[in-house]
Each structure stands twice: as C-alpha cells, then as structure tokens.
Design goal:
The protein is mainly beta. Helices cover 0% and strands 51% of the residues. The chain is globular. It has no helices and 11 strands.
C-alpha cells in the first residue's frame, strides 16, 4: 500500500521560514500532479499549492502567494513546500496529496480530486 509521509513541521515564530517534505513509499508521484492542503481546527481543508507532473506549472492560494514555494524531485519521489515569512494564520495541519489523474491539471485546488493523502504535519506559528 502506498503511503505518503510528511515531515518538517514544528513551532515557529512569525516571520520565520520552514520547509515541509512529503515522501512516497513507492513510485506513486510519477505523472501525477501533487498538492499541499492545510486544515486548522474547526475549519475546512484549504488548498495551499499544487505542482504539475513535470514541475513546469504551479499554482497557489492567494493567502500564500509570494511566500510559499512548491517543488518536487521526481527522482526522489518527494515534494516540498518552502514556507517563508510565516504568519500566525498559517497555523494548521499541512497535508500532502496526489492528484488522481495522470497528466491531469483539472481542479487542482479541489481536495476531492486527490486520491492519496499523507497523515499531516503540524505547523504552529506564534505571533
């Protein structure tokens, strides 16, 4: 069974940087777009960023645009989320996910389009 494992979360102060990683247990990322979502207590899961299967296209939520960068290393079957200038509002559990379609870029902001999810990593930003 394919597993996605996030790492890199922690407690940071506002203005700090943090990099999250998401590794797949098998070659699960090949030819799939990947995404990051986050969920704060009492809130719905929120789209953060997505990257196309070859890394050539990315898209971000307005709330993180210019501060976060998504990337991927297909050789390592890993994706990353570089988070800079963290704000208290970024506090959430961050989850990585694999888009269900191969070579597909449809509705990448919609969580229902993703078929594999990690367990999440907590990011807490103190103001």
């Amino acid at each position: 069974q394919v597993r996605l494992v996030e790492s890199g979360g922690g407690l940071q102060q506002a203005g700090d940087s943090l990099r999250l990683s998401c590794a797949a247990s098998e070659l699960a990322f090949i030819n799939h777009a990947l995404g990051w979502f986050r969920q704060a207590p009492g809130k719905e899961r929120e789209f953060v960023a997505a990257i196309s299967w070859n890394g050539g296209t990315t898209t971000y939520a307005d709330s993180v645009k210019g501060r976060f960068t998504i990337s991927r290393d297909n050789a390592q079957n890993t994706q990353y989320l570089q988070m800079n200038t963290l704000k208290a509002g970024d506090t959430a559990v961050y989850l990585c996910a694999r888009h269900r379609g191969m070579w597909n870029w449809e509705n990448v902001a919609g969580p229902d389009e993703y078929d594999l999810w990690g367990q999440g990593t907590q990011v807490t930003v103190s103001s």
